[in-house]
Amino acid sequence: MRRIGPVALLSILLLNSVVWAQGRSGERSIAAKSGRPIPVIPPFKAQVGNTALDMPVSIEDYMVGPGDIFLVSIVGLDPYLIQATVSPSRRLVVPQIGSFAVQGLNAAEVRNQVIAKISQVYPNYEADCILYGIREIKVSLSGAVSAPGMYKVTPLTRLVTLLRQGGGWKSQGALHRVEIRNGNEVSVVDMNRYLVEGDAEQNPRLRQGDDVLVPYGDMASEIVTVRGVEVKPAYHAIRPAELLSDFLKRWYTAGSGADLSQVEINRAGEAAEPLSITVKLEHYGEIELEGGDIIYITPFEKVAIVGEVRNPGRYAFQPGFSAADYLTRAGGVVSDGSRRSVTVTRKSGQRERGVDTMVEAGDVITVPRSARTLLVGQTGMVQVLLAIFNIYLTFLAATS
User: Fold this and answer.
1) Judgement on whether residues 20 and 104 belong to the same structural domain of the protein
2) How many domains does the chain have?
3) Residue 379 belongs to a domain
4) Where is the domain boundary, 187, 214, 241?
5) N or C terminus: fewer CB in 10 A for the chain?
6) What values do phi and psi take at 141, rounded to 5?
7) pLDDT tens readout for residues 145-193
C-alpha cells in the first residue's frame, strides 16, 4: 500500500477545513436572513418498527401517535434536516420552529401544519415534512394460539402477522369469529375469509391496546375430526356451512401427504348407525361439513430414496414430481453417484430409468455408484486387484 506523503496529507487537511468553513458560512447566512439561530442537527435513523409493509403508507390514513418520527427539511443554501418525535402528550416539538398538537390528526395534516409554520419562520426557503419512523404499540394475544402474551407491533401490523408472531393458531381455533377488543369496543372478524378468499377487510390493522382473542371452537357444533392421514386424530374448527373443498384447502394441500382424490365422512344421524359418505374430488364443493363429522383421509405411501444421495430416506409423495425433484429434496447426488443411471422401481416391480421419470406414491428411487467410482474409488475394483496382486507376490516370496 502506498503511503500518503506530508504534502498530500497537508492538502487534504486544508481542503476539509475549507469545506467546513463554507458550511458554517452557509448556516450563518440562513441565520442572518431569518433572524434566528440554526440549531445543531441531531443524528437520525429511519425505522418502521418490526413490520414489513404490505403497501405504501398513506399519510392521509395514518393517524399520528406518541413515538412517531417526522423528518423536517429546509432547503436553502445548505440542506437542513431536523428529526422530531411525537411526545407521550401527543405533541410534536420541532426545534426553532414550534410545538404542534397532533391529537386526532393524520400524518398529512401534521405535515401541512409544520410546513405552514416553517414558511412563517423561514419565508425564503423550501420546506418539507415527512413521516420518517413508525411507532411501536403493545397488543395482547390469547386463546387458541401457540404462544399467547403481549406483543410489540406497529399501527401497520395486520392481524394475521400478530397471529404468526404468536406461533400460529391451533387447529381447534374458531378463526371465523376472532374477537378484537379495545376498551368498550368489540369487533369480530372472519380470518377464514381472508385465508381462503383473500378478503383484506377480515385482516385489519391493529391499534394500541387491542386485545385479540382466538376462541376455541364449540365441540358439539364447530369441531370435526380428521383420521387416517394424521398420526393421531386431529380436531379442527369449522365455520358455519363450511364446504369440504374450503376445509381441505385450508388444512390439507397437495404436499401434505394426503390422497385427496376422495375422502370418507362419517356423520351421526337419526339412525343408530352413523351415516357413511364417500365423496370424490369433483363433488367436494357440494358437501357442507357439520360439527361432529369424522373425515377419513387416506395418506399417500411415501417415496423411498436410496443410494448415493446426501440424505437418503422416505419422503412424502408430491403429485407431479419427477425423480429429479425428489433428488433435489434429498440434497442431490453425491460425487460417487451416477445421476445418469437413476432408476425408479414401481410397487408392481416395474423399473424405469432416468431422472425425468414421473414418480408415483410408493416408488423407490435408486441412485447407483458411477462406473468411475467402481474402478478407482476407495473400495473399487483397482484396489481389490492390487490387494490380490500383493498377496500373490507375498506368496511367491514365501515359497521361493
Assistant:
1) yes
2) 4
3) no
4) 214
5) N
6) -135, 130
7) 999 999 999 999 999 999 999 999 999 999 999 999 999 999 999 998 8
